């Protein structure tokens, strides 16, 4: 599908070629989006790269790890709620209706 380039950062699919993008995305909103993109895109790309590297590690058998060993998630004495009674009954269909 082809795109309609609005500016250096923003483009729309060709289905917006009839200028309906101006109604959905006024100039002020586009300016705001461009500023957000300029401010956060570098960090966004860093985070995506880090996620790709983590996924590759998991694919090789590695396990997730907490980066901060002093965080409440690691050192806290928190707990989760007990399993609801309805879910403790193994006859409960969780995934949907079974086809016969």
Describe the structure.
By secondary structure, the chain is mainly α. It contains 4 helices and 2 strands, in the order ββαααα. It has a domain of 65 residues. Strands 1-2 form a two-stranded antiparallel ribbon. The model has no long low-confidence stretch (mean pLDDT 80).
Low-confidence stretches: none
Tally of DSSP helical segments: 4
Q: Biggest sheet, open or closed, and with what strands and sense? A: 2 strands, antiparallel
Find the count of extended strands (DSSP E, 2+ residues): 2
**Alpha carbon gap, first and last residue:** 42 Å
Overall pLDDT, averaged?
80
**What's the SSE pattern?**
EEHHHH
Structural class: mainly alpha
Overall, the morphology is extended
Tell me the β content.
Answer: 5-15%
Descriptors:
100 residues; mainly alpha; 4 helices; 6% strand
Summarize the helices and strands and which ones pair or pack:
Elements: E1 3-5, E2 11-13, H1 20-24, H2 27-59, H3 72-75, H4 85-88
Antiparallel strand pairs: 1-2
Summarize the structure.
By secondary structure, the protein is mainly alpha-helical.
């Amino acid at each position: 599908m082809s795109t309609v380039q609005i500016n250096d950062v923003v483009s729309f699919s060709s289905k917006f070629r009839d200028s309906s993008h101006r109604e959905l995305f006024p100039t002020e909103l586009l300016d705001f989006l461009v500023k957000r993109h300029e401010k956060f895109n570098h960090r966004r790309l860093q985070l995506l790269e880090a996620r790709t590297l983590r996924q590759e590690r998991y694919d090789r058998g590695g396990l997730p790890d907490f980066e901060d060993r002093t965080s409440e998630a690691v050192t806290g004495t928190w707990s989760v709620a007990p399993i609801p009674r309805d879910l403790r009954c193994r006859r409960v269909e969780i995934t949907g209706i079974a086809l016969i």
